[in-house]
Amino acid sequence: MELLAGQTAIVTGAASPRGLGKATARLFASHGAKVAILDLDPRDAETAAEDVGQGAIGMACDVTDKAACDAAAAAVVGKLGGIDILVNNAGITQPLKIMTIAPENYDAVLDVNLRGTLYMSQAVIPHMRERKSGSIVNISSVSAQRGGGIFGGPHYSAAKAGILGLTKAMARELAPDGIRSNAVCPGFIATDITAGKLTEEMRRDILEGIPMGRTGTAEDVAGCCLFLASELSAYVTGSEVDVNGGSLIH
Ligand code: NAP
């Protein structure tokens, strides 16, 4: 059964080959959606779109650039005919301690994760409002809920916690327009965001904290994004869905 037949979706930061965004784009496409993959490098975005197939398109968009977000949203409407779903997935992290966060670290991490989520949402909301329909899925993190402790520093936890607040405030404000807004909070998922940066000891400690005894996969996260994007979650808004193997149960 195709859950997104006839729908169109934007996934930001979706060019990373082993990333959560690309797995989400692939699953959406396999459920009948036309997908726009946005990322920093236009060639990477196009390559990812070719790989996903099913009419997916790739284009450059730095989510920290408001004009670029507006232009990308307009281009997607022009090429795919509309935007039903936005997944704000672009994100970066840095393993810093509180006293080593320099102003440029704060700016980089807050800008991509939080400002980018705001700007890209602002870029699609007028279009979704016009059509009285839409689903926005924001990728937060278990780090927001438990105060880090896996890889990202306190500024990453703060950015991802900011995303939770933004998600819920958008849910409240946009519900009368038929637009839903939800967050996904992944636990530890092995992707390039931490690739080569984890010691064996860190990996062992992480596994010890996961009741299900394994790290997550990009597909584990994609499945929850599909649920939140589709009509299966028609009455769900303002929620945070945990995808963490039980590493945080609250
Ligand atoms: P990833 O493989 O590093 O993918 C992130 C993508 O975002 C990359 O393609 C990156 O491009 C792109 N990007 C960076 N800055 C951007 C910008 N300004 N505008 C547009 N795109 C930008 O990471 P991932 O693990 O798939 O993570 C995806 C999301 O899940 C992130 O928000 C992350 O914080 C979140 N998350 C991940 C985990 C995990 O364990 N992996 C856990 C919780 C939450 P470049 O490669 O060119 O920089």
Molecular structure report:
By secondary structure, this protein is α/β, with parallel strands linked by helices. It has one domain: NAD(P)-binding Rossmann-like Domain (Rossmann fold), CATH 3.40.50.720. The protein is 45% helix and 15% strand. The protein contains 8 helices and 7 strands, in the order E-H-E-H-E-H-E-H-E-H-H-E-H-H-E. It has helices at 20-30, 42-52, 66-80, 103-131, 142-146, 154-174, 200-208, 218-229; strands at residues 8-12, 34-39, 57-60, 85-88, 134-139, 179-186, 240-243. The chain has a 7-stranded parallel sheet with strand order 3-2-1-4-5-6-7, with helices on both faces. Helix 3 (66-80) runs parallel beside helix 4. The longest helix has 29 residues, at 103-131. The two termini are 33 Å apart. The model has no long low-confidence stretch (mean pLDDT 97). Residues 12-13, 15-16, 19-21, 39-41, 61-64, 89-93, 112, 116, 139, 141, 186, 188-189, 191-193 line the site of NADP nicotinamide-adenine-dinucleotide phosphate. NADP nicotinamide-adenine-dinucleotide phosphate binds next to helix 1 and helix 4.
Annotated CATH topology: Rossmann fold
Largest sheet: 7 strands, parallel
Strand share of the residues? 5-15%
> Can you list the ligands bound to this structure?
NADP nicotinamide-adenine-dinucleotide phosphate
Number of strands: 7
Mean pLDDT: 97
Distance between termini?
33 Å
Low-confidence region ranges: none
CATH architecture label name: 3-Layer(aba) Sandwich
Global structural class: alpha/beta
Q: What's the order of the H and E elements? A: EHEHEHEHEHHEHHE
Number of domains: 1
CATH class division? Alpha Beta
Helix percent band: 40-55%
Shape: globular
Oligomer: single chain
Q: What's the arrangement of strands in the largest beta sheet?
A: 3-2-1-4-5-6-7
Tally of contiguous helical segments: 8
